Automatic annotation (TrEMBL):
It comes from the Bacteria. It comes from Thalassotalea profundi. Residues 33-140 form the GFO/IDH/MocA-like oxidoreductase domain. Pfam families: GFO_IDH_MocA_C3 (PF22725). SUPFAM superfamilies: Glyceraldehyde-3-phosphate dehydrogenase-like, C-terminal domain (SSF55347). InterPro entries: GFO_IDH_MocA-like_dom (IPR055170). This is GFO/IDH/MocA-like oxidoreductase domain-containing protein. Gene3D superfamilies: Dihydrodipicolinate Reductase, domain 2 (3.30.360.10).
Amino acid sequence: MYKTAQENNVVLFEAFMTPYLPNFAILKDNLKNIGTIRKAFISYCQYSSRYPKYLNGENPNTFNPKFANGSAMDIGYYCLGATLELFGKPTSINATAHLLDSGVDGHGSVILTYDGFDVVVLHSKTSDSFIPSEIQGEKACLQIDMISVCNNVRKVERKEKVTNLSVPQEDNRMYYEAIAFAKQVSQNKIDEKAKTRSLLVAKVLTEIRRQTGVVYPDDA
C-alpha cells in the first residue's frame, strides 16, 4: 500500500491517533526521567457492546474473521502501537490468546522482550479493566489512564510522591491525527517514521496471530 501510494505521488496515512496526542508526547518525553526502564504493563480491556450479540448466536463484524477482526487486531492494536512507538522493535514476542468459536481471539496477552526489560500487553473484548497502564523505571514509574487516548499521565516516585504531568486535550482525540494528516497532504509527503511504525506493528500482529492460531479467510 505504501509502495503504491508513493508510485502514484499520494499520501497514505494510517489512522492511529495515540502517537499524535499531547499527553502521549509528554509520556514519551518523560521516559528519560524515570531511570533505567525495567518493566512495562500496557492494557486495554473493554467488554464489547456487541459481545452479547455474539453470545446470542449472531455474527457481528467485531468477532467475525471475514472482517479480519478480534481483540488483538482491534483494541489490542492501541497497546501494541503505543509500545512500538515508545520502544521500537522487540527482540522477541510471546503471545497467547483465547479463541472464540468464530475463530478470532476474544482476549489475549503478549510479552514483548527488550534489552533489560519486557512489556506485558493485555487486551480483551470480553472483559473490562479499570487499572492504568504503567512503565516502571528504577527511579520512578509513569502511569497512563487509557493508553489509547492518554487521558492522564502521572509520575509516581518512591514514598508515593505523585506528579500529574497531563495537559488538557481536545475532547475529540482524533483532532491531532487529523492535523498531522492534513500537514502530510499539504506537503504531499508521507511521514517515514510513522510508516516504519505502521509496518512494524503489522509484522508484530502477524506474528501474534501466527502464535495464537488466528487465521482469516483473506490470509489464503
